[in-house]
Structure formats: C-alpha cells, structure tokens
Write a structure and sequence with these properties.
Elements (H helix, E strand, L loop, with lengths): L6 E3 L2 E3 L1 H25 L5 H8 L3 H8 L8 H9 L15 H4 L25
C-alpha cells in the first residue's frame, strides 16, 4: 500500500483505488441516467426539451453531446422523476469481493407504463 492514502471512517477503509472505482461508478451512472432522460425527450427540439425538464437549451445541448460535468446524479434523477417515473435503487452485495475481484458496477433499467422493462436498441445486439 505504499503511496496509497488510506481513509478510515464508519468502519470502512477506502484507498485511492476504492475512490477511483466509486468515481467510475458515479460517472457510469450519470451517463446511463442522461441516456435515459434523453430517450424520454427523443423527438423534441432542444428548446422544448429544455422547457420540459426545467433546463436551458444550452444545457440540453451539453447533455446530448455527452458533457455531463454540470449534471449531478441527483439532478438527473429529479428530472427523470419529474417526467413521471418512480426511481428505485437496488443494492446487491458482491460475492466475496476479495476473492473474486468482482468490481462494483451501476446500472439503470427503465420500465414502461405497464411495468415491463424497456430495452434500448443498442442492448438488443
């Protein structure tokens, strides 16, 4: 652990690697949430889409370009919820992470009005 900073709190130890993994998960989650929000706004011009979710047109342009630095996960969740969607978060334990080296991950699943999972075009391949 030479050269690695160790943070201890609430009984958990976090290394720089752990912080990087957490940052990666948040970035991945932001990308997925933005993709879902943009799917909900598909077919709308930027001005109308911005008005629908309470943003300015340049913010929609940034989101469509994948520039998500100005959007927090909480902000994206609020915009999706304001479109009439419930938000569910599931926490699943990693099976013995020290043995399997399974990395934590995040995912987003949208459901239609009947409760069926929506499959995006790129997931069907």
């Amino acid at each position: 652990m030479r050269g690695e900073r160790m943070l201890v709190g609430e009984g958990l130890a976090c290394t720089n690697e752990g912080m990087r993994i957490a940052h990666d998960i948040v970035s991945e989650l932001k990308e997925q949430l933005a993709e879902e929000l943009l799917t909900l706004l598909d077919g709308w011009d930027q001005t109308d889409a911005a008005a629908q979710v309470g943003l300015r047109q340049p913010d929609i342009s940034l989101m469509r370009a994948g520039q998500l630095e100005r959007f927090s996960v909480a902000r994206l969740l609020r915009m999706i919820a304001n479109q009439g969607y419930h938000i569910e978060i599931a926490l699943k334990p990693i099976k013995r992470p020290t043995v399997t080296r399974e990395r934590p991950s995040g995912s987003v699943q949208r459901y239609d009005r009947l409760g069926h999972p929506v499959v995006l075009d790129d997931e069907e391949e």
